[in-house]
Design a protein that fits this description.
single chain, alpha+beta, Rossmann fold, 18 strands, 26% helix, 29% strand, globular
Length: 361
């Protein structure tokens, strides 16, 4: 237990937890890390009672508190549109709005005929990490899963960059983050089946990789079964993803759904980070799940804020509410907090996780 705790601290100490400024203590460089300024980034989905996305909302429609302390929105982006910097506006002037006073538009999350259409949807600026289960759980549907992932990659119009990782007992970084779709597709086709599944070990490493980048960070996990080889608990994965602002979507097949523990864990991890969990019964359901994720990403609001003074140096609770006439009937999905470390004296040299292509031991 003690080893796991310090291993987790080591992961945190090596990250830019959220975009900000880090400086080392002058008297002992490298042994202490101080957080000076933190820009907290949120990805928020707004839907009605039927699950349809609500678009055309403005910054004044969102109220954010952190540990019940009101926050001021610094930047705002709606559905992959241009980023608006609100705190750069001179004091006393009114922030420019797009569509102020208009009735929010409702975008169906699933068109008539129960067929999810993704035409015209763009996932602008997102860094998407795809984590593919190549363990022995995947033998039977391996080729079909590769096809579904390949179609998903081709459909990500406007996404900033895509990475393709696979895992069994170890993590394989087949294609690191790149805008080259052809390179990512070659990584998908070159993946091969492995042995036991260490999902949580490898997902933690993927979150650590994603945390190095600014902007929207997304991990899409395709799993065909439970975890039977990890040393890292799923709670650590969820907390690190929350603290780094990384969204996790889980797609799992019917085989994993038959194990209640895995089902509950997949749902907890995705919900905690503002994502979703999908359980596909067949190849067609897998394609629908990928299409649903792409649609979700295309309709997220991206908000950020500089936290107001707060003595809490542990877990900070985030609450996002909608304000305005008729807004209370809509539903919000986002992460509910993050953990901040003001300083740490944990030395990365004290630990020896296995190489860059394997999971922590």
């Amino acid at each position: 237990m003690v080893k796991r705790y310090f291993l987790f601290l080591w992961f945190l100490s090596g990250l830019f937890l959220l975009r900000g400024s880090w400086t080392a203590a002058q008297e002992d460089p490298g042994s202490r890390i101080f957080v000076n300024v933190v820009l907290v980034q949120l990805n928020v989905a707004v839907t009605d009672s039927k699950g349809n996305y609500i678009s055309s909302l403005d910054p004044e429609n969102f109220a954010i508190t952190e540990d019940k302390i009101p926050q001021k929105i610094a930047t705002f982006e709606a559905g992959g549109g241009p980023t608006r910097r609100l705190l750069d506006i001179p004091p006393g002037s009114k922030p420019p709005t797009q569509g102020a006073g208009k009735t929010p538009e409702t975008v169906p999350s699933e068109p008539a005929g129960n067929q999810i259409s993704t035409s015209g949807l763009r996932v602008a600026g997102a860094n998407v990490f795809i984590l593919f289960d190549t363990s022995n759980y995947m033998y039977r549907g391996f080729v079909f899963a590769q096809d579904s992932i390949a179609d998903f990659i081709r459909s990500l119009e406007g996404a900033g960059k895509i990475a393709f990782y696979s895992y069994s007992r170890d993590l394989s970084r087949a294609t690191t983050l790149t805008p080259d779709r052809a390179q990512v597709l070659r990584g998908v086709r070159s993946s091969v089946a492995g042995d036991d599944a260490a999902l949580y070990n490898c997902l933690l490493l993927t979150v650590k990789d994603a945390a190095q980048f600014e902007g929207r960070k997304v991990i899409v996990v395709f799993s065909n079964g439970p975890d039977n080889a990890s040393t890292v608990p799923p709670e650590d994965v969820a907390e690190l993803a929350q603290s780094t602002g990384t969204i996790i979507y889980m797609i799992s097949t019917q085989q994993a759904q038959q194990e209640p523990v895995s089902t509950a864990v997949f749902e907890r991890i995705s919900k905690a980070t503002g994502g979703k969990a999908y359980f596909a019964k067949n190849w067609g359901d897998e394609k629908k799940a990928f299409a649903s994720i792409r649609e979700d990403l295309a309709h997220l609001y991206a908000l950020s804020y500089y936290p107001q003074p707060n003595p809490n140096r542990g877990w900070r609770t985030i609450n996002v509410k909608l304000v305005g006439k008729g807004m209370q009937k809509y539903h919000i999905r986002t992460r509910d907090g993050y953990r901040i470390l003001q300083q740490t004296q944990v030395s990365p040299a004290s630990f020896s996780p296995s190489g860059s292509e394997s999971a922590p031991k």
